[in-house]
Amino acid sequence: MLAAKGVAQLQKLYARRLAAPIKASAASDAHPGPSRPSIAQRCAAMGVRLTAKRQRIATALDGIEGPFALEEAFFRCRDLGLDVNRSSVYRLISSLVDARVLTLVGRDNRRDLYGAPLPVELLIETSDHTPARIDDPVLVEMLVAAAARMGVTVAGGQILLSVVDETAPAHA
Fold it and tell me: Range of 110's domain?
């Protein structure tokens, strides 16, 4: 009974993935920001070796736009015709997180979401001039795209947003 329920849930998730295929967003095509190295390139730069099978899985993961859950990564591999099982995909993602090639970027509906480390550091400075680091990949990507539209490259840099409280009394 429990196994049948689990299979039904996976089929439902798989049906949703087929209904909404993974594709690059129009915003990223229209306004290219800093180019991100592939997972394999980040692995090579960090001294992480990948087997041929893991290389194929990493290439499939590169095709997912935005943060992804483990099940989405598995279904992406299956959609591309890769002969892999869930445990192979899960172990690779776990290894990539341990090596800091991928990072846990949040949770959605009780599922961990993974993605590439943020391309830039985002700080928000409050009215008392205290900066706080923000780990929101969606906000960072939007700001990087906005900067790219203005002709500003921020890859490897820092974005600092200042919050001004106009209701606070001015300092004398």
Answer: 2-115
Total of domains in the chain:
2
Cα–Cα distance measured from residue 147 to residue 73, given in angstroms and rounded to the nearest whole number:
30
Task: State both tokens at 25.
Answer: 């967003």
Beta bridge partners of 124: 132, 161
Query: Within this chain, do residues 86 and 138 fall inside the same structural domain, yes or no?
Result: no
Tell me the pLDDT tens digit for each residue of 30-71: 333 345 678 888 888 888 999 999 999 999 998 887 789 999
Give the confidence band of 89 by pLDDT, cuts at 50, 70, 90: very high
When pLDDT is cut at 50, 70 and 90, the band that residue 26 belongs to is very low
Q: Are 68 and 109 in contact (CB under 8 A)?
A: no
Helix (H) or strand (E) run with residue 134 in it: strand 131-134
Distance CA 111, CA 155 (A): 29
Same domain, 109 and 133: no
Pull the structure tokens for residue 143.
């700001």
Q: Is residue 168 part of a domain?
A: no
Same domain, 78 and 57: yes
- The strand pairing partners of 86, in sequence order, are none
Tokens 């980040």: give the residue.
42
Q: How far is CA 116 from CA 3, 36, 97, 119, in A?
A: 33, 9, 9, 8
Residue 80: pLDDT over 90: yes
pTM for the whole structure: 0.55
